[in-house]
Amino acid sequence: MSFPLLPDSVPVADDAEPDADALDAGAADDVERRSATVSAAWHGLRLDKVLVEMAGEFSRSHLQGLIEAGHVRVDGVVARVAARKLRAGQRVQADLVPTAESRAFRAEPLALAIVYEDDDLLVVDKPAGLVVHPAAGHWSGTLLNGLLAHHAGASALPRAGIVHRLDKDTSGLMVVGKTLTAVTALVRAIAAREVDRRYRAIAHGALNPPERQVEAPIGRDPRSRTRMAVVASGRPARTDIRRVAAAFDCSSLECRLHTGRTHQIRVHAASIGHPLVGDALYGGRPLLGLTRQALHAHELAFEHPRSGAPLAFAAPPPPDFAAAWAQISASPT
Predict the structure, then answer these.
(1) pTM > 0.85: yes or no
(2) Which of 7, 177, 186, 313 could form a disulfide with 161 if both were Cys (CB 3.0 to 4.6 A apart)?
(3) What CA–CA distance (Å, rounded) separates 328 from 331?
(4) What stretches of 138-209 adopt beta strand conformation (E)?
């Protein structure tokens, strides 16, 4: 199953248990057991190449993973070496566990913190640590999986109705569409900068002057594909930043997004010499009890996609962030 891109705003044999870090076997009813006898034409071929002949719908790398995880047997014995040469007459049996990607878009009941919900949309308060959308390393347990379990209509929507994202370790408010009409309207509103998104952040150093408007294009860092950066070839991005208080060589900040580029606040703050506390990717360090990036989506306001009524929400930050914020606010600047 694939989803279109949205505007801005990845049974085991009884006597052979797989290693603890081996490929997840998934649900038993998802696994097809396939067997074949090595023919004369296959004599001398590697085990992984024979599996390609047996199950060509899977990639060779995935089949190699099945071998390493103990899901393949030769003459009834678990075979874990992909390069093993086979002989004519040998019997190969493979439990064809689906790829992680193919299992990603599934309903998984999650305890969603729903701030508001009606027939058209819902607003959730995402905790830090929750991944929004399945991707490499996080094929399950995401917000998308929880939305698919929360309401039946999510399965018919692009990205289960998700119209913007928060990073895994960023907490706070997100709006999600429940109908295609609502999703389309919300996407357009975000693209037109009609959705007001305000964040709280804690950054290293005392922001001076206390109010900054950072307007700098953001794109993939040419030196590291895991990072974003201010680059001339990037997409336009604007963030308004205001210092609320300063102490401990830190500033508590209120930030308003005018665009929604990947890692926008984190990149813009680092670009002016004030990386977020705990944000190791962009130069931040743990401080004041915070070991993750100090960023919380605090306020969200927009017009209802069907009625046009104004909606506004605020969510208190989680305890770790709130404690650090309070320490700065209670100290003399």
Answers:
(1) no
(2) 177
(3) 5
(4) 171-177, 196-204
d(CA 69, CA 214): 49
Tracing tokens 């930050």 back to the chain, one arrives at 317
Cis peptide before 209 (omega within 30 of 0): yes
* Confidence tier at 112 by pLDDT (50, 70, 90): very high
If residue 283 lies in a helix (H) or strand (E), which one and from where to where?
Answer: none
Query: Structure tokens of 36?
Result: 């074949």
Distance CA 211, CA 205 (A): 14
CA distance 140 to 148: 12
**190-201 pLDDT, tens per residue?**
999 999 999 999
Residue 92 near residue 44 (C-beta atoms within 8 A): no
At 177, which amino acid appears? Answer: G
CB 253 within 8 A of CB 317: no
Which tokens in the block code for residue 27?
A: 């649900």
User: Degrees (nearest 5) of the Cα angle 132, 134, 320?
Assistant: 35
Q: Tell me the C-alpha distance between 96 and 238, whole Å.
A: 48
Closest-CA residue to 86 (of 33, 38, 36)? 38
Q: Which residue has the higher pLDDT, 136 or 277?
A: 277
Mean pLDDT, range 23-27, rounded to an integer? 38
Identify the CA nearest to 121 among candidates 316, 313, 315, 318.
313
Task: Give phi and psi for 229, each to the nearest 5.
Answer: -160, 160
Q: What are phi and psi of 188, to 5 degrees?
A: -65, -40
Q: Annotated active-site positions, please?
A: 167
Residues comprising the chain, all counted: 333
Residue 34's SS3 state is strand
Give 39-50 pLDDT, tens digit per residue.
999 999 999 999
Q: What is the DSSP string of 194-243?
A: -SEEEEEEEEES--SSSEEEEE--EEE-TT-TT-EEE-TTSB--EEEEEE
